[in-house]
Amino acid sequence: MIDFSTEFGQRTHKRLSEEEILWLTTTDSRGIPQPRPVWFLWDDETILVFSQPQAFKVAHIQNQSHVALNLNSTFTGGDVVVLLGEAQVVSTPNSQQVMDAYLKKYEQGLKGINMTEGDFRDSYHTAIRITPTRLRGH
Question: For 76-112, what is each residue's pLDDT tens digit?
């Protein structure tokens, strides 16, 4: 379990609650890291990402559950956050309320890519739940 009571832990928790982009790094079948920016929802314990079912990240996680997560640093390289975790593809993310919260968070993002909530639900219906196990950074 990650200690979010330290100053760095509290800052990380706040960023996970507020930021819109997280870098998810999976490992392909050749062992090559594959980082990609993703939208995510933090529930104070786990990170939820919705994906298209045929996306490479889904296959990578089904073969290797260890992942790395990074938040963007400042322009000068400060405020570095790296999380290591275990990911799993889940059949149901928890409830309709979870999907609604996810879509509310990304309401403007969906508009920016000309996608409706219905389009998102139809295309990005595979849920990935990530449990962070380690935190490092500064």
Answer: 888 999 999 999 999 766 567 888 899 999 999 999 9
Instruction: Identify residue 110 by its one-letter amino acid code.
Output: L
Contact 23, 57 (CB under 8 A): no
- Give the pLDDT band of residue 63 (cuts 50, 70, 90): very high
Report which of 65, 70, 59, 64 is spatially closest to residue 37, judged by C-alpha positions: 70
Distance of CA 51 to the CA centre of its chain: 10
Query: Could you count the other beta carbons within 10 Å of the beta carbon of residue 72?
Result: 14
Quote the percentage of the chain above a pLDDT of 90: 78
**32 phi and psi, to 5 degrees?**
-90, 125
Task: Identify the sign of the CA torsion 97, 99, 101, 104.
Answer: negative
**What φ, ψ does residue 11 adopt, rounded to 5°?**
-65, -40
From the CB of residue 123, how many other CB atoms can be counted at a distance below 10 Å?
Answer: 13
Taking the C-alpha atoms of residue 36 and residue 55, their distance in angstroms, rounded to an integer, is 11
Q: Which residues in 39-125 belong to E strands, given as ranges?
A: 41-42, 47-51, 66-71, 81-90
